[in-house]
Write a structure and sequence with these properties.
Elements (H helix, E strand, L loop, with lengths): L1 H39 L2 H5 L3 E6 L4 E5 L7 E7 L8 E5 L3 E4 L7 E10 L2 E2 L3 E7 L18 E4 L7 E6 L2 E7 L2 H6 L1 E4 L7 E8 L2 E9 L9 E4 L5 H5 L4 H10 L4 E5 L4 E4 L2 E3 L3 E5 L7 E5 L3 E3 L5 E9 L1 E4 L12 E5 L3 E9 L2 E11 L3 E9 L2 E13 L5 E15 L4 E2 L9 E10 L7 E5 L8 E4 L2 E2 L10 E5 L4 E4 L2 E2 L21 E2 L4 H4 E3 L4 E4 L15
Parallel strand pairs: 15-16, 16-19, 17-20, 18-21, 19-22, 20-23, 22-25, 23-26, 24-26, 25-27, 26-28, 27-29, 28-29, 28-30, 29-31, 30-32, 31-33, 31-34, 32-35, 33-36, 34-37, 37-38
Antiparallel strand pairs: 1-2, 2-5, 3-4, 3-6, 6-7, 6-8, 9-12, 10-11, 10-13, 13-14, 39-40
Protein name: Fibronectin type-III domain-containing protein
Keywords: Membrane, Transmembrane, Transmembrane helix
Organism: Thermophagus xiamenensis
């Protein structure tokens, strides 16, 4: 009997537990069911608008979205800072809206929500969209150095330019009548290797922008003497013998002398006996200008032994008192013995000289390099002339350069008893060079053990009407001629007896004269209008 009573108690307790569990399950199901119903009933799920199309113009943005039946109206907001602040607010009961009178070239964030009776949705946030820029009259800014930029414009009047870097105001330049007449102004006190935006305004109205980046400041090796702060009158007379003597005393291991771009300096002649580098500093005015009334030379004692003479970003030109026969002046006219390891010309212009580099005594040079230069109006001593039995230049390189209006030779080594080692001429354009009967390269009896290379050059008409010229004369058996071209009006001299061409340079004939190959050769514009040689031959500046 006892066992039966215990069984009934156990069974009853089990039923009780099962009832409790059942009630809990029902309650939980009801709880979650209510939550699901609530979620289905929220405004965000029912009618949160989703933007389906956005367009933008100069000062407007238009948005469209689906129409929702339970929405009474829609609220829209624009912001430029991810809704930290609201730039523009709007309401509409349609399914589209157009924001107007916005700023040009500005990125806006857009969001929208629906509002109904006693209910509203969450915001739908659209991606950033930008208005287009003002059709500015500012020209692209291309004349830029490390700390300055030239800003120019056309067919517009501005009263101010605002300079910005990463949305931070750097400066405001106020413009006057003269600036607008010149349609140009120089922005100064910039930082090297920095990007800027220039915005133009007139009477408070935005008138467009242009962007640019400044260059890196040049880094000079060794000692540096900067002459850019001298006034024009002082600068003109500073390059005299006493100055170079002082440099040799203070900097016997060499010095870089920085000249002011666009400023004129007079060179009356200087004897050098220590390493010198003359360079034009970065300038919007172009190269530094040296007006030559003499030339560089070694000291008279014949003992000079120098590592380097270097010239970059310099224009060597005429002197007002020395016009006859190109002033009878040179850049170098060595009349004293000595040796220099290298003479370098980089990005220079050399004009109105009797010769560029002449050695008329027992002076020797390890390397002569002329790169990215324009050489024009040179007399009978030519570009490089070894004009003495003891004159020497072991290695000669001429590249990426233009030689025009040349009376003499590009290289003449027929007089020297020394044997140069190598000659490399690549990507050179010539026109009106040389005069009739002369050679481009007169290297008579010179073997050039390391070879002669003349590649990718473009030879235009000789200087003179109905004249013939000669190309390359040498005793070298190691000559490479590749991808050279000539205009049809460059005519090689012909041997009267054999009727064969005399010392021609192997070059493909373009079948057109200089006026069909170059843009305006009479005015020294050798821009190529014959596309067959673009990117293939001649000075790359004309491609």
């Amino acid at each position: 009997m006892k066992n039966k009573t215990e069984y009934i108690r156990f069974f009853s307790s089990q039923l009780f537990v099962q009832k409790v569990i059942f009630v809990m399950i029902v309650l939980l199901a009801g709880f979650y069911g209510c939550n699901e119903d609530d979620e289905l009933g929220t405004a965000d799920r029912l009618f949160r608008p989703i933007i389906k199309n956005v367009t933008a113009g100069g000062t407007w943005i238009r948005a469209e979205w689906d129409k929702y039946r339970n929405a009474d109206y829609f609220q829209l907001e624009l912001s430029v800072d991810s809704f930290e602040t609201i730039t523009v607010e709007a309401e509409t009961d349609t399914n589209y809206y157009k924001f107007e009178n916005l700023d040009y070239d500005t990125g806006y964030y857009l969001r929208i929500k629906a509002v109904g009776q006693n209910i509203e949705s969450e915001y739908f946030v659209y991606e950033k969209i930008s208005t287009s820029d003002y059709p500015t009259q500012l020209e692209p800014i291309t004349k830029v150095i490390d700390t300055k930029a030239m800003v120019s414009w056309k067919d517009a009047v501005y009263d101010s330019l605002v300079v910005v870097h990463n949305d931070t105001l750097i400066s405001t330049v106020f413009l006057g009548d003269t600036d607008n007449e010149n349609k140009m102004v120089i922005i100064e006190k910039l930082k090297p290797e920095t990007s800027y935006v220039v915005k133009a305004y007139f009477q408070g109205e935005y008138m467009g922008k242009q962007s640019f980046s400044t260059m890196a400041s040049p880094i000079y090796e060794g000692a540096v003497v900067d002459l850019r702060d001298y006034d024009e009158e002082t600068a003109y007379t500073i390059l005299k013998q006493s100055f170079f003597d002082q440099m040799a005393t203070q900097y016997p291991e060499g010095v870089t002398i920085v000249l002011d771009g666009g400023t004129e300096y007079k060179l009356t002649g200087a004897r050098l006996y220590s390493p010198i580098s003359l360079t034009g500093g970065l300038s919007l005015e172009g190269n530094a200008i040296i007006r030559v009334s003499g030339n560089f030379d070694f000291t008279t004692d014949g003992t000079a032994n120098v590592s380097k003479f270097s010239f970059s970003n310099i224009t060597f030109t005429d002197h007002p008192d020395k016009l006859r026969d190109y002033g009878s002046t040179y850049v170098f006219n060595f009349g004293s013995a000595g040796h220099v390891d290298s003479i370098l010309f980089e990005n220079c212009e050399i004009r109105y000289k009797r010769g560029v580099l002449r050695i008329k005594t027992a002076a020797t040079i390890g390397l002569v390099s002329i790169n990215n230069c324009i050489i024009d109006s040179i007399g009978g001593y030519g570009v490089i002339n070894l004009d003495n039995g003891g004159a020497g230049a072991e290695e000669i390189i001429i590249s990426n350069s233009t030689i025009s209006h040349l009376d003499g030779y590009i290289v003449r080594a027929s007089k020297t008893n020394l044997q140069p080692k190598s000659l490399t001429v690549e990507y050179v354009t010539t026109c009106f060079a040389p005069v009739g009967g002369r050679y481009f390269f007169d290297l008579d009896k010179k073997t050039f053990e390391d070879g002669i290379k003349i590649n990718n050059c473009l030879f235009g008409k000789a200087w003179g009407d109905d004249v013939t010229v000669r190309g390359l004369r040498s005793a070298s058996t190691n000559v490479t001629l590749s991808q050279n071209y000539k205009t049809s009006d460059l005519v090689w001299e012909v041997n009267a007896e054999t009727l064969s061409e005399m010392y021609p340079i192997e070059a493909s004939d373009l079948g057109e004269d200089i006026y069909s190959v170059f843009k305006d050769p009479d005015n020294s514009d050798y821009t190529l209008i014959n596309n067959s040689v673009k990117n293939r031959a001649g000075d790359p500046r004309w491609w």
